[in-house]
Amino acid sequence: MEYHWPGNVRELQNILERELILNPTGPLTFAHLHKNIPDAASVSYAGGEVAYNLDDTISNHIRQVLRVTKGKINGSNVAAALLGVNLSTLRNRMRKLGINYGKASK
What we know:
Elements: H1 9-22, H2 54-68, H3 79-83, H4 87-97
């Protein structure tokens, strides 16, 4: 009850289920929670930019992968494959975040 939960209800449900699996006979301690939560001051991005907003972080990561793939999102060894997402998922996310692709990016 004293722990500030930063996630959504689904994540909380997953943590509860995990704790029940790890400690089926009780008691539930949730000791692992404090080990996996980074301090806000230690959050950084590989490119050197610090982004706390999730959309900004996702946008930065997609743009970094696009630089690596020279803007290619479709096929093998390209952005969708490197990100581990379906091509339509990547296109929708890029559209939502205002990241140009295809003919619009040229």
